[in-house]
Design a protein that fits this description.
3 helices; about 20% helix; homotetramer; alpha+beta
């Protein structure tokens, strides 16, 4: 896979009164997914911010397929959607790890900024992400 | 407006290290928006659940336009997008209340369920929501 | 009362699979309580931070008495516990607003810092908070 | 150690505008700590709830010592504090994993309930937890 996958357990406080994961939490799962993808290509996001590069979410889309419960192990699979000079789209699939059952798919568009205005993605990161498409 | 609007302040824990509202929280703001719209037409969501009717989010979309900071007063405007027998779409706009600056727009699709399977929206609620379109 | 009280509704995502408010959220309710107390004495916390004064929580205590549910209106009552040159304690009571039923009591100690090290509370704020004891 | 330890990374949405972990999140870290301790003695909490046993937090105490940042790896160490027929106290220490720097200590008291009223801890779980003291 030209992407990355990360596993974790559903926390109790992520459930709601329906007994399932509150849909808000998948936004955090996507964030964990792209954090780990960036780490896997050698550009931990914490390091990017330390260099004055900030990724700002400009678009978010989620389609919920089924749900999961407290303490189940989940897996987020993250892939590059597309990449432009100053923005990047990541695509996500969240699955229940044990059976592979699909919980949600979605994507986010992130704009690259210097903390104030939109700027180009650092050249080496751009090349690294482009290589994920091959 | 054939919808509803609700105001509240940004809580400290809703900010992130960029100093702005973390994008995850807009999902909660949308939820507050539809909660208040349902209350305004006489069908508080808590009452629907007490009658065994559950709205499950099946699709979520957000476009982020600008951001806001801790303690700013925000306004969520919620409108009916469309309504079918077993599902409904709500459209949202989140603004900074003081200047009306647009922070985000988006929508959610909710499926009506009896807690297990998809079911028809209660007839009186369906009529009430349809009347919002006129 | 030499303090302040603020009302708000329990949000859906604040509930957990037991059907009640997850205990973590009371920490956020306390924060809202002291935010509103500071505003009521003319020192909005956002303004303090803009002047380079940060309150850092050093101690937190909560006793849970009973619980509340989605959409119930709650009230947080906040009072000054004690005040020293560089720290302050606030005491809280969270009630279900309709019946006054007590949900939780607790307190937090906050250290005053300049963002790096502990510093004295600004003199006018100190005097204002002390006046709450009279 | 007669306890258990679990590691995880600080998520971006757990930070606040001060650039550090918002103090509210340590409540969730404690919860993860006791979840893993219970799993390690063969009584996953999810399984207890499936049998109609619910642990309700009645008291929470946290002392914050220092703070940590986005993406740092943390470790929660959880030990049995004391155990009675119908309640149990867990003690926690949260450290930055890399250097062992102490971030927070604290404890929670949990009452054992059948979902409605306080009840005795299941005998085998009681014995298992007591054995942690030896």
């Amino acid at each position: 896979m030209n992407g990355h996958s990360v596993r974790f357990r559903v926390r109790y406080y992520e459930t709601d009164k329906m007994g399932i994961i509150h849909h808000k939490n998948f936004v955090g799962y996507f964030e964990m997914g792209r954090t780990e993808l960036l780490r896997s290509v050698g550009y931990p996001y914490a390091q990017l911010e330390a260099q004055g590069i900030f990724f700002v979410v400009t678009e978010l889309h989620v389609e919920y397929k089924s749900n999961a419960r407290y303490d189940e192990e989940l897996e987020v699979q993250t892939r590059l959607g597309w990449i432009r000079h100053a923005s990047v789209r990541f695509d996500y699939a969240v699955r229940q790890a044990a059976e592979g059952r699909l919980l949600a798919t979605g994507w986010t568009v992130l704009a690259c900024t210097d903390g104030k205005k939109v700027c180009r993605l650092p050249e080496p990161l751009l090349r690294k992400l482009e290589s994920l498409r091959e």
